[in-house]
């Protein structure tokens, strides 16, 4: 149904909750930093920030919560523009964290456009993704399926199509996958069995259900009361509740509840819900194109307004109610409730609050009564407890996607939040951060005891040290798990020593995991770095939030398992094209020591590895190639404490020359196949000798004393 692109105030009234007996007690909070643009569609990104469109334009803004996790005290930043403006359109947050938008009743690409595009928060870019081939999407309904694909309707006939964001393809649902009539103005709701339920607006009071496993639309019975306004064919939101029923709000003032059959053929059952009260003219309040949200306490927040039955009579002002499963209870209205009802948008936040905007430069957060049932919460069954900066990890648990899509409007805006967010709270600082999630194993709802998972990435600016980790779904948090955030680590692809300052001090840069890490170096380190790192076969680096902490070069001649068969080492693989180095900093970054817990872990691992070994009279080459080192050596080995000859010997698999301290002695490490042996290289001359002789050799044999400390090394060159 065509509506004005914008509509002015109809009437104004003060916000305030009714004092009726049994009414919910809740409140609205004004954002400390109100937007400078009219707020349209809002979407919750998987890093916990909120993406807000400016009216029906191309522009988008991001709301970031403060360090205590407060959205009320959050701050704004602008995002990249879409390719096309759009107002009243399909939208979804994808399972990989990107954002899908399609269509638009109003757009600079034409009325009821079929243009679709995807936003990538990681790169802040938009990409066009084609269309289903109809020539019009407009304000069509859409719904994310549990496998991550998106079901989209056609406003002009009964056809539907599915967009696959992984394959980037549009596919028609086929002749059996068509509705009984056009899907125009409908509200689609994802059910626990993976099917999608809708009440037909052009064939009311009939309801239908799309079953993905069979690719068909089937009957879902008919509503016991009329929910569709005949003159406008409009309807309100429909929300799956924790008890498994779908609460459907009508544009007529009536409501109904649907209980799914849970199979691929049944129609399910319908019961009549409560009516909204009448206005001063004895007309039932109506939800004619209106938002709704499932609160963490299990109630449904919905919006209605006074209006007649004419197609162009839009409800205004907006009045708020909570449905508690049996009754509709009047609650407070925010100051921006004096708008026409169809301009309203709701978004459920990880805090359990609901943002409400009405296409004005104002946002308010609804704080509901507490009270989620503990059984509704997600649970964590497996997550790594040692996390490194820029690392990606898998979290496994149950009910990570919540019990419902939780936010509903209908054909004009889909803003579901049924995906897991990972939240960290600093144990000592109390700082709150949401870690970006992606690749959720499912987009289903109410998954029960079935194991599900998601991936999350640790940002490189996160504070190091202990944190409490939880997963949040639809505003309900799991129990916390203690984790420790330590140094990030990875294997470098490229190394750059940059002597750019007048003093000839400079920077060492390592390109690893798709990013450059760097730290300042002095003249006394230049020779050692060039000999140590650039002559190594592989270089592993560690970093903190400020940049590179240390780099360790590994000489790993594992092709020497059968040295007699080789005259030259195997060729190194061709590296990928060198990316553009980062811009030079204006000053040297400060080098920080790693946290004490990281140091203690490394020291403990080194001590555990220094076990006694056999002492053969001669050293034979290893029979197979060495493993990758599983644990980095401790940063400061001790000198030999016992005379030579009382330990053991072996052919080393790896040599490490470790410049951990700027200007201090280097540590020489050798891996004997089972344990690390270490000694100090105190003088620069010794250091050069080690690099030029041992690291250039085809084979290095080592001897150690009874304490496990490195004593003698002998290098062999096979010509």
What's a quick, concise take on this entry?
The chain has 719 residues and is mostly beta strands. Helices cover 5% and strands 34% of the residues. Mean pLDDT is 82; it is low at 6-23, 557-595 and 601-645.
Task: Give a structural overview.
The structure is a single chain. This protein has 719 residues and is mainly beta. It is 5% helix and 34% strand. The chain has 3 helices and 51 strands. A hairpin with a 7-residue loop joins strand 41 and strand 42. The longest helix is centred in the C-terminal third of the chain and has 14 residues, at 596-609. The model is unreliable at 6-23, 557-595 and 601-645 (pLDDT under 50).
Distance between the termini: 84 Å
Structural class: mainly beta
Low-confidence stretches: 6-23, 557-595, 601-645
- The best one-word shape is elongated
Task: State the major sheet.
Answer: 6 strands, mixed
* Number of E-type strands: 51
Rg is 32 Å
Helical content band: under 10%
Average of the residue pLDDT scores:
82
Distinct helical segment count: 3
* Beta-strand content: 25-35%
Features:
719 residues, mainly beta, six-stranded mixed β-sheet, 3 helices, 34% strand, elongated
Write the topology of this structure.
Blueprint: E1 27-30, E2 39-44, E3 50-54, E4 60-64, E5 75-78, E6 90-93, E7 99-102, E8 116-120, E9 125-128, E10 142-144, E11 150-153, E12 160-164, E13 169-172, E14 188-190, E15 196-199, E16 206-211, E17 216-222, E18 238-240, E19 246-249, E20 255-259, E21 269-272, E22 292-294, E23 300-304, E24 319-323, E25 328-330, E26 345-348, E27 354-357, E28 363-367, E29 379-382, E30 386-388, E31 392-398, E32 407-408, E33 421-426, E34 432-435, E35 437-438, E36 452-457, E37 465-473, E38 476-477, E39 481-486, E40 488-491, E41 494-498, E42 506-512, E43 515-521, H1 523-532, E44 538-544, E45 547-555, H2 596-609, E46 648-651, E47 654-658, E48 666-671, E49 676-681, H3 684-694, E50 699-704, E51 710-716
Parallel strand pairs: 30-39
Antiparallel strand pairs: 1-28, 2-3, 3-4, 4-5, 6-7, 7-8, 8-9, 10-11, 11-12, 12-13, 14-15, 15-16, 16-17, 18-19, 19-20, 20-21, 22-23, 22-32, 23-24, 24-25, 26-27, 27-28, 29-31, 31-36, 33-34, 33-37, 35-36, 37-38, 37-39, 40-44, 41-42, 42-43, 44-45, 45-47, 46-50, 47-48, 48-49, 50-51
């Amino acid at each position: 149904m065509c509506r004005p692109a914008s509509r002015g105030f109809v009437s104004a009234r003060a916000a305030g909750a009714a004092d009726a007996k049994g009414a919910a007690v809740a409140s609205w909070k004004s954002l400390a930093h109100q937007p400078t643009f009219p707020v349209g569609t809002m979407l919750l990104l998987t890093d916990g920030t909120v993406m807000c469109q400016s009216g029906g334009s191309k522009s988008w803004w991001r709301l970031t919560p403060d360090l205590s996790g407060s959205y009320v005290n959050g701050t704004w930043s602008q995002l990249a523009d879409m390719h096309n403006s759009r107002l009243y359109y399909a939208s979804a947050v994808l399972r990989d964290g990107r954002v899908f938008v399609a269509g638009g009743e109003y757009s600079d690409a034409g009325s009821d456009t079929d243009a679709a595009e995807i936003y990538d928060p990681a790169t802040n870019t938009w990409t066009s993704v084609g269309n289903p081939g109809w020539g019009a999407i407009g304000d069509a309904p859409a719904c994310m399926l549990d496998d991550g694909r998106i079901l989209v309707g056609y406003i002009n006939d009964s056809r539907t199509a599915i967009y696959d964001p992984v394959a980037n393809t549009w596919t028609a649902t086929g002749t059996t996958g068509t509705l009984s009539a056009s899907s125009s103005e409908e509200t689609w709701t994802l059910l626990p069995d993976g099917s999608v339920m809708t009440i037909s607006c052009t064939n009311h009071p009939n309801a239908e259900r799309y079953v993905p496993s069979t690719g068909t639309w089937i009957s879902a019975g008919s509503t016991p009361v009329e929910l569709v306004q005949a003159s406008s064919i409009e309807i309100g939101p429909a929300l799956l509740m924790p008890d498994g029923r779908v609460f459907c709000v009508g544009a007529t003032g009536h409501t109904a509840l649907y209980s799914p059959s849970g199979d691929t053929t049944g129609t399910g059952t319908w019961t009549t819900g409560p009516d909204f009260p009448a206005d001063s003219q004895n007309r039932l309040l109506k939800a004619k194109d209106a938002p709704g949200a499932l609160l963490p306490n299990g109630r449904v927040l919905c919006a209605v307004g006074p209006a007649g039955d004419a197609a162009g009579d839009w409800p205004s002002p907006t009045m708020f109610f909570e449905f508690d499963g049996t009754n509709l209870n009047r609650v407070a209205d925010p100051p921006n409730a004096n708008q026409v009802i169809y301009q309203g948008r709701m978004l459920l936040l990880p805090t359990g609050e609901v943002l409400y905007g009405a296409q004005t430069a104002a946002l308010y957060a609804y704080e509901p009564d507490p009270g989620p049932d503990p059984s509704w919460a997600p649970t964590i069954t497996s997550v790594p407890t040692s996390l490194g900066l820029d690392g990606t990890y898998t979290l496994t648990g149950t009910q990570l996607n919540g019990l419902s899509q939780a936010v509903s409007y209908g054909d004009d805006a889909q803003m579901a939040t049924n995906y897991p967010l990972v939240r960290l709270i600093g144990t000592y600082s109390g700082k709150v951060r949401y870690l970006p999630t992606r690749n959720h194993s499912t987009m289903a709802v109410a998954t029960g005891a079935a194991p599900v998972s998601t991936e999350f990435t640790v940002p490189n600016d996160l504070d190091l040290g202990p944190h409490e980790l939880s997963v949040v779904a639809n505003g309900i948090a799991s129990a916390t798990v203690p984790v420790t955030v330590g140094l990030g680590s990875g294997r470098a692809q490229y190394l750059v020593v940059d002597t750019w300052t007048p003093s000839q001090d400079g920077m060492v840069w390592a390109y690893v995991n798709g990013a450059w890490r760097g730290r300042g170096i002095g003249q006394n380190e230049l020779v050692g770095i060039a000999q140590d790192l650039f002559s190594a076969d592989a270089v592993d680096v560690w970093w903190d939030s400020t940049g590179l902490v240390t780099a360790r070069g590994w000489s790993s001649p594992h092709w020497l398992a059968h040295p007699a068969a080789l005259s030259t080492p195997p060729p190194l693989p061709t590296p990928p094209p060198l990316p553009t180095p980062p811009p030079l900093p204006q000053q040297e970054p400060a080098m920080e020591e790693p946290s004490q817990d990281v140091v203690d872990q490394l020291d403990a691992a080194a001590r555990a590895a220094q076990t006694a070994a056999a002492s053969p009279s001669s050293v034979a080459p290893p029979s197979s190639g060495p493993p990758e080192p599983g644990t980095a050596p401790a940063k400061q080995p001790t000198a030999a404490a016992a005379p030579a000859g009382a330990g053991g010997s072996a052919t080393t698999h790896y040599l490490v020359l470790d410049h951990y301290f700027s200007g201090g002695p280097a540590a020489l490490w050798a891996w004997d196949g089972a344990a690390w042996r270490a000694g100090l290289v105190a003088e620069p001359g010794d250091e050069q000798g080690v690099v030029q002789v041992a690291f250039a050799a085809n084979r290095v044999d080592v001897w150690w004393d009874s304490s496990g400390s490195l004593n003698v090394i002998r290098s062999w060159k096979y010509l």
